[in-house]
Amino acid sequence: MLRGKRVLVTREKAQAKALSQTLERYGAIPVELPLIRIVRARQTNQELLHKWHTFDWIVFTSQNGVKYFFEHIGEMKPPTWPKVAVVGEKTAKALQKRNVVVDLIPNEFVAESLAEALKPLVSSNARILLVKGNLARDTLREQLSNIANVTDWIVYETTYNEEAKPQLIHFLQQRMIDAITFTSSSTVHSFAQAVSGENIDLSFLTIACIGPITKQTALQLGLPVHVCPHTYTIDEMVEQLHQYFTRGE
């Protein structure tokens, strides 16, 4: 079981709390060490800032996209909203809290499912605004471009948190954690960058990824993945981590 296990929470500081609280409910000891920083994009597209509401569809792929989109537009309230499509329940809830109607949320919380679900709903000349971060995968853009005209709007930037490296290396060398959680590909990349060339044995570590894209990134970087839930949520990842440790006892 998870009780007493020390679990590293690598996600950005402002978003770590929800994961830590879930781990604590299982009796685990969350160790927060943000490996990434997420900030509002330093520059914004002034044309999009004034014309975003004229698109046919607006697509959000993360809670960060929602948060920083609203930081950019401020108090601006358009006469009407475009239709809204999202990836993931948490993204949908973040919009609903702001009284924005979500028109489409695919069954699977990955970009590929969103493009598939949108296909029958848009015409070839439809205009889609894709709200994203600077490190977003190109997959969704490419797939949407096959069915409509797509415009990107980068509203936030993700960077590697270099200050976390010494503490991370210390934790790993002293084997002070039992498991590590990755909630995005960027957290995996940052971890791999931090341990690169350090000659650290990771065989003692249980690695949990929130979904298939994050898992794929970890495997491509040579990291084993022990836990990856079928439902791509924090709650399910922690539940699967709990079951993994329970089976091992």
From TrEMBL:
<dbReference type="Pfam" id="PF02602">
    <property type="entry name" value="HEM4"/>
</dbReference>
<dbReference type="GO" id="GO:0004852">
    <property type="term" value="F:uroporphyrinogen-III synthase activity"/>
</dbReference>
<comment type="similarity">
    <text>Belongs to the uroporphyrinogen-III synthase family.</text>
</comment>
<comment type="pathway">
    <text>Porphyrin-containing compound metabolism; protoporphyrin-IX biosynthesis; coproporphyrinogen-III from 5-aminolevulinate: step 3/4.</text>
</comment>
<feature type="domain" description="Tetrapyrrole biosynthesis uroporphyrinogen III synthase">
    <location>
        <begin position="18"/>
        <end position="239"/>
    </location>
</feature>
<comment type="function">
    <text>Catalyzes cyclization of the linear tetrapyrrole, hydroxymethylbilane, to the macrocyclic uroporphyrinogen III.</text>
</comment>
<dbReference type="InterPro" id="IPR039793">
    <property type="entry name" value="UROS/Hem4"/>
</dbReference>
<dbReference type="InterPro" id="IPR003754">
    <property type="entry name" value="4pyrrol_synth_uPrphyn_synth"/>
</dbReference>
<keyword id="KW-0456">Lyase</keyword>
<dbReference type="GO" id="GO:0006782">
    <property type="term" value="P:protoporphyrinogen IX biosynthetic process"/>
</dbReference>
<dbReference type="GO" id="GO:0006780">
    <property type="term" value="P:uroporphyrinogen III biosynthetic process"/>
</dbReference>
<keyword id="KW-0627">Porphyrin biosynthesis</keyword>
<dbReference type="InterPro" id="IPR036108">
    <property type="entry name" value="4pyrrol_syn_uPrphyn_synt_sf"/>
</dbReference>
<protein>
    <recommendedName>
        <fullName>Uroporphyrinogen-III synthase</fullName>
        <ecNumber>4.2.1.75</ecNumber>
    </recommendedName>
</protein>
